[in-house]
Design goal:
Elements lengths: L15 E2 L5 E7 L14 E4 L6 E3 L9 E5 L21 E14 L11 E5 L12 E2 L8 E9 L8 E6 L3
Antiparallel strand pairs: 1-6, 2-6, 3-4, 3-5, 5-6, 6-10, 7-8, 7-9, 9-10
Length: 169
């Protein structure tokens, strides 16, 4: 049995929290091999202008085009992933949260605070910055943007997991 000495884990990236307060819709995921195929749950996604499928954030994206957050399915069907790993499908339907609360992985080195502004790193991944990752510090306009319809709901746990509230634009 695990003993939690100071704090329970904050969640699993991509899990919808507070189920009574959310809007999730089905979209088609950008196919593997195409630009922007999502590689993790709990990340912001945009609608691709060509395929009209959801894809991960790229360097040319802004907060105005964020469509929602990629939801981790539960219960999930069989997977080839190792225990504790959860990779989005290569093609087909997926769930996207448009409004609600979600557990996400915090990138960067700045700690999140309750009510704090959520930033998205849009530039190429470097160091602790992950392309499409959530950050608590302003990455400057050349590297990312503020997500105007989201706020942090508290600090991250020891694994870097925090909760974000998202409103429909």
């Amino acid at each position: 049995m695990v003993a939690f000495v100071t704090r329970m884990p904050a969640g699993i990236p991509g899990d919808v929290n507070r189920a009574q307060h959310h809007t999730v819709e089905v979209q088609v995921i950008q196919a593997s091999g195409q630009t922007g195929h999502p590689t993790a749950y709990g990340i912001p996604v945009v609608l691709d202008a060509t395929s009209h499928n959801v894809r991960a954030v790229g360097a040319s994206d802004t907060s105005a085009v964020i469509y929602g957050f990629l939801v981790r399915p539960f219960p999930a069907v069989s997977s080839q992933d190792a225990v504790g790993v959860s990779t989005p499908p290569l093609t087909g339907p997926c769930d996207v949260m448009r409004r609600g609360y979600m557990s996400v992985k915090l990138s960067g080195t700045t700690a999140a605070v309750k009510g704090g502004v959520v930033y998205v790193w849009a530039n190429t991944a470097t160091g602790s910055h992950i392309q499409g990752g959530f950050e608590a510090a302003d990455p400057t306009t050349s590297n990312g943007f503020a997500l105007s319809r989201a706020t942090f709901m508290g600090p991250a746990d020891a694994n870097g997991i925090t909760e974000i509230a998202l409103a429909i634009a």
